[in-house]
Amino acid sequence: MLDGGCLCGAITYQISGAPIVVAHCYCRDCQRASGAARTTGAMFRADDVAIKGTMAEYKAAAESGSTVSHLFCATCGSKLFGKNTDMPGVMTVAVGTLNDPNAVTPQVAVFTRSRPHWEPADARVESFEAQPAWKPEDGV
Ligand SMILES: [Zn+2]
Ligand SMILES: [Zn+2]
Q1: CA torsion angle for 11, 105, 65, 70 (degrees, to 10)?
Q2: CA separation, residue 45 to residues 18, 49, 68, 92, 132 (Å)
Q3: Among residues 79, 82, 95, 122, which one has the least CA distance to residue 19?
Q4: How many Å lie between the centroid of ligand 2 and the Cα of residue 39?
Q5: Is CB count within 10 Å lower at the N or C end of the chain?
Q6: For residue 15, is pLDDT > 60?
Q7: Tens digits of per-residue pLDDT, 100-120?
Q8: 1 C-alpha to center of ligand 2: Å?
Q9: Is 25 helix (H, G, I), strand (E, B) or coil?
Q10: Do 46 and 63 form a contact (C-beta atoms < 8 A)?
Q11: How far does the centroid of ligand 2 lie from the alpha carbon of residue 8, in Å?
Q12: 97 DSSP assignment
């Protein structure tokens, strides 16, 4: 069982299943939304994630043409979750919001074409210049 929450504590969550994939994302949208060079997200079956608290949502168009929802705490601004209309039934959890970020291990990096020169690459994971053609049911 994994758990976590936002900076102010208004949003908390518990996750019952194992992650489908854990990925670093260097896309410009993640950089702007987080203020950091990359985000690291763990994808789970949405049914496995139980959330307490009311979140704000911001929707943005992805490069693929799908719509990405950024779900965040309206009080403290922590971004906790992401959803993509291309991948119904799953959601991404920002692993920095886990109570124990060491509980997961990144496996891939995507959109490395926009990794800033000052951000070291993670040589331990498979890297993709953009979004690989991959669906959750394919596994890693
Ligand atoms: Zn909060
Ligand atoms: Zn991204």
Answers
A1: 10
A2: 9, 7, 16, 9, 20
A3: 95
A4: 7
A5: N
A6: yes
A7: 999 999 999 999 999 999 999
A8: 26
A9: strand
A10: no
A11: 24
A12: G
Q: Are 93 and 83 in contact (CB under 8 A)?
A: no
How far the first Cα of the chain sits from its last, in Å, is 21
| Ligand at shortest distance from the CA of 5 | 1
55-70 in b/e burial notation, b at 16+ Cβ within 10 A? beeeeeeeeeeeebeb
**Greatest alpha-carbon span in the chain:** 38
Q: Is 60 exceeded by the pLDDT of residue 139?
A: no
**Cα 112 to averaged position of ligand 2 atoms, centre (Å):** 10
Token pair of 34 as six digits: 């987080």
Interval between CA 94 and ligand 1 midpoint (Å): 14
Residue type, 68: V
- In 3-state terms, what secondary structure has residue 66? coil
Q: How far is the CA of 92 from the centre of ligand 2 (A)?
A: 11
